[in-house]
């Protein structure tokens, strides 16, 4: 009982500590609002400022409090499969069992050694692009990374929110820097009255400009990832398929890759509401070499219908229309003529990622 109690206390302390970066960002944002609205108080800019501020806070909130999606129950081992796996001591025999289970699932990626990706902690076969997060202690669909600044895993369910958070926070900092610049210059030329506001103006400019630099680099990097249809983990280590490693295995061309994250409807792109394509357990692939052991038509659905999705078996439906268009639209969607050929040949082959514990 004592060791268990100490572990619970330790976990409780860790959960509190994980919120410190989020609290730090919240305090910085609250101070910036006070300094800009109440101290600087440039009336003509306040309308634009509040529009950017609201979108920034909304996207940040969504990134923090949207729960990462976990694999559907079809990927979990049944009780009988668990017992069968535990009775086998040899690794090859265990892999035979896992391969038998995986034949009915849209799983196309492997470990570096070519084995089925299996999570011992969650007791499930990992869907493509799914990884186990050591902080959340769960398998996360299309895991990108665990971000301490949002105290959450960034994955399939909130990656769009994370991108919008980066975009609006960068826009927020750039707007403050641009509108505060003239007063910053006056500060050094003694053109400002000697009040408390002048120090807020000084530090507001410094903090906004410094955050702009770091946010610009991070946002640019993730824009590149979106265009290549890779996660941060996949950029570090490329996904392994049956035919070998392929860093572009999930890339369908820049436009299609973008739509996979932000959705088909342009009106939803700048808004922090879910509009990504698919269900997070399977993904279209540009690969020509199909995996003969796997089903060729995984399902596609919206996470908003996750409850209904949990009751289905793979494959039970064709790709939904929006996801199917990612594979059947014209070659103009592709990055090159070669990519266009791959799209035509490997139309409905979903792909998956690498073995990476984060």
UniProtKB/TrEMBL annotation:
Domain of life: Eukaryota
GO molecular function: protein-cysteine S-palmitoyltransferase activity
Reaction catalyzed: L-cysteinyl-[protein] + hexadecanoyl-CoA = S-hexadecanoyl-L-cysteinyl-[protein] + CoA
Gene Ontology, cellular component aspect: membrane
Top-level enzyme category: transferase
The Palmitoyltransferase DHHC domain, residue ranges: 116-236
Keyword set includes Metal-binding: no
Disordered, as annotated region: 292-358
Keywords carried by this UniProt record: Acyltransferase, Membrane, Transferase, Transmembrane, Transmembrane helix
UniProt-annotated location(s): Membrane
Its membrane topology: Multi-pass membrane protein
Protein EC: 2.3.1.225
Domain notes: The DHHC domain is required for palmitoyltransferase activity.
Family: Belongs to the DHHC palmitoyltransferase family.
PANTHER family attached to this UniProt entry: PALMITOYLTRANSFERASE ZDHHC16
Name of the featured protein: Palmitoyltransferase
């Amino acid at each position: 009982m004592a060791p268990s109690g100490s572990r619970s206390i330790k976990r409780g302390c860790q959960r509190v500590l994980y919120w410190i970066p989020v609290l730090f960002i919240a305090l910085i944002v609250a101070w910036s609002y006070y300094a800009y609205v109440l101290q600087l108080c440039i009336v003509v800019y306040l309308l634009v400022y509040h529009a950017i501020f609201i979108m920034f806070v909304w996207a940040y909130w969504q990134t923090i409090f949207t729960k990462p999606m976990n694999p559907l129950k079809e990927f979990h081992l049944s009780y009988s499969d668990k017992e069968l796996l535990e009775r086998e001591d040899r690794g090859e025999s265990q892999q035979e069992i896992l391969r038998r289970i995986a034949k009915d699932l849209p799983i196309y990626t492997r470990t570096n050694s070519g084995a089925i990706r299996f999570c011992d902690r969650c007791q499930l076969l990992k869907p493509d692009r799914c990884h186990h997060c050591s902080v959340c202690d769960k398998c996360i669909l299309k895991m990108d990374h665990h971000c301490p600044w949002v105290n959450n895993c960034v994955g399939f369910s909130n990656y769009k929110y994370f991108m919008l958070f980066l975009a609006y926070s960068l826009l927020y900092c750039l707007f403050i820097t641009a509108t505060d610049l003239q007063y910053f210059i006056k500060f050094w030329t003694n053109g400002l009255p000697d009040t408390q506001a002048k120090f807020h103006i000084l530090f507001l400019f410094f903090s906004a400009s410094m955050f702009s630099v770091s946010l610009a680099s991070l946002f640019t990097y993730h824009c590149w990832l979106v265009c290549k249809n890779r996660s941060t983990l996949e950029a570090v280590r490329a996904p392994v398929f049956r035919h070998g490693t392929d860093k572009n295995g999930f890339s369908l061309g820049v436009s299609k890759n973008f739509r996979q994250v932000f959705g088909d409807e342009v009106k939803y792109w700048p808004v922090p509401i879910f509009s990504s394509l698919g269900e997070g357990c399977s993904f279209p692939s540009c690969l020509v070499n199909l995996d003969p052991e796997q089903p060729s038509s995984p399902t596609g659905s919206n996470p908003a219908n996750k409850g209904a999705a949990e009751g289905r078996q793979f494959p039970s439906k064709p790709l939904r229309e929006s996801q199917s268009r990612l594979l059947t639209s014209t070659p103009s969607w592709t990055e090159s003529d070669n990519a266009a050929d791959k799209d035509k040949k490997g139309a409905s082959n979903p792909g998956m990622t690498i073995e990476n514990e984060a």
